[in-house]
Amino acid sequence: MAEMDTSGGGGHKKGPGVKKGKKQSTRVDLTPMVDLGFLLITFFIFTTTMSSPTAMKLFMPKDADKPEEQNKAKESGALTILLGKDNSVFYYEGILDPAGANFKASNFKEIRDVIINKKKSTPADDFVIVIKPNEECKYKNVIDIMDEMPINAVKRYALVDISEGENQLVKATEASNSLP
Amino acid sequence: MARPKIPRKSTAVDMTAMCDVAFLLLSFFILTTKFKPSEAIEVTTPSSVASKVAPEKDVLLVTITKSGKVYLGMDNADRRRDVLNTLNVTKQLGLSDADLESIAKLEFFGVPVGNLKQQALMPKEQQTDRVLPGIPIDTTNNQMIDWMRAAATVYAGQPMNLLVKGDNDASFPSFKNVMTSFKKNELFKFQMVTNPESVPQGTALWNANLAGIKPEE
């Protein structure tokens, strides 16, 4: 094992009166060292393979200036998701009711069921999701909601600017929700 | 007849060889690991289920920090100089060749175009998101449009990976203004850098992955 030869090369005997010191083993138990070594190896193996960042692809449509050139989404198959501040999510189906009757609040956990239900209830060709973040929402929320699209196999979705009326509705709802 | 005594052998195993192998592997992994260089711009990226690894070549990286400052980085030094050259001409910055050379050494740009020379003179440790003001991207003064126009000219016909790396807490308008700068220059394809995340169970994507359907590119 890993020890040094301390016998002194088969050397000379000591004198008759000199007592032989008891030779202590110089062997070191290497097991903990091996343990530590493999622990570090596993650590490095895991950290090297896990840290590569991934990338989400996004294709933007060309901005059409004239309204008649824009892709018209069939109203019945549209689901509009609005994002506000503090991770709040709102949605409505079809066209927004002027009184805001079909304007509903949701959150990032429940929105998946909303998407799945809407997807089941509409023909695949008409189904489109419109994402409208307002200026107070965070980048993370936008990525999260766009991430829901591949998760739920939504083929058609668009990132659209929020309209003034919708933004006011979002803010009003947020304000009323924050009241005790 | 008395049996000859069989000497009892020790059951201790010689660990030296195993120890050698362990430390050889250990030193190999330590040396080959690329540690994340301490980043000048601190960004915590959001996570997504995207499984494609972010490209590392021909990258044009737009970083958006927590406070909404925007920085532009390029991996290829030659392209960096070309983009600067184009920008120098289009924005009439009046930079000399020596200035351009020193500015092109910067790994990322984070100042209004008029101040590029000052950024090049700054010591490298100071070039962080705390000190640099970022490229202006307001709706009134969106200089990212100029940068992207120069980049689009330089990279024309060549592969270009447009990456956006945003912080979790970056507000949406800064991301929107960056997108506007892409759109204005007809760059419709870009990728967002995210951390990998596991697919939630029971969803459509989860089922597709189980069935072995490869996600569309």
Please provide a written account of the structure.
- Chain A: The chain crosses the membrane at residues 36-56.
- Chain A: It is a single-pass membrane protein; Single-pass type II membrane protein.
- Chain A: Its main location: membrane.
- Chain A: Residues 1-24 are annotated as: Disordered.
- Chain A has a domain at 67-177: Nucleotidyltransferase, domain 5 (2-Layer Sandwich).
- Chain A has four helices and six strands, in the order αββββαβαβα.
- Chain A has helices spanning 31-50, 111-121, 139-151, 164-178, and strands at residues 54-59, 78-83, 89-93, 104-106, 128-133, 157-159.
- Chain B has a domain at 56-196.
- Chain B has helices at residues 16-32, 77-90, 97-104, 116-121, 144-154, 172-184, 204-210, and strands spanning 47-48, 59-64, 70-74, 108-109, 161-166, 189-196.
- In chain B, strands 1-6-5-2-3-4 form a six-stranded mixed beta sheet.
- In chain B, strand 5 (161-166), helix 6 (172-184) and strand 6 form a beta-alpha-beta unit.
- The longest helix of chain B has 17 residues, at 16-32.
- Chain B is elongated.
- Chain B starts with 15 loop residues before the first helix and ends in a 7-residue tail after the last helix.
- In chain B, 30% of the residues are buried.
- At the A-B interface, helix 1, strand 1 and helix 3 of A face helix 1, helix 6, strand 6 and helix 7 of B.
- Strand 1 (54-59) of chain A pairs antiparallel with strand 6 of chain B.
Care to count the β-strands of chain A?
6
Task: Report mean pLDDT of chain A, rounded to a whole number.
Answer: 76
- Radius of gyration of chain A (CA) equals 34 Å
Q: What characterizes the major β-sheet of chain B?
A: 6 strands, mixed
Sequence of secondary-structure elements of chain B: HEEEHHEHHEHEH
How much strand of chain B? Answer: 5-15%
CATH class of the domain at 67-177 in chain A: Alpha Beta
- N-C termini distance of chain B: 84 Å
The side-by-side strand order for the widest beta sheet of chain A comes to 4-3-2-5-6
Summed over residues and divided by their number, the pLDDT of chain B gives a mean of 80
Secondary structural class of chain B: alpha/beta
User: In angstroms, what is the radius of gyration of chain B?
Assistant: 26 Å
Give the largest chain-chain interface (CB within 8 Å). Answer: A-B, 50 and 62 residues
Strand share of the residues of chain A? 15-25%
Q: How does CATH name the architecture of the domain at 67-177 in chain A?
A: 2-Layer Sandwich
Low-confidence regions of chain A: 7-11
Q: How would you spell out the order of helices and strands of chain A?
A: HEEEEHEHEH
**Which residues of chain B form runs of ≥5 with pLDDT under 50?**
none
Give the end-to-end Cα distance of chain A, rounded to a whole number of Å. 73 Å
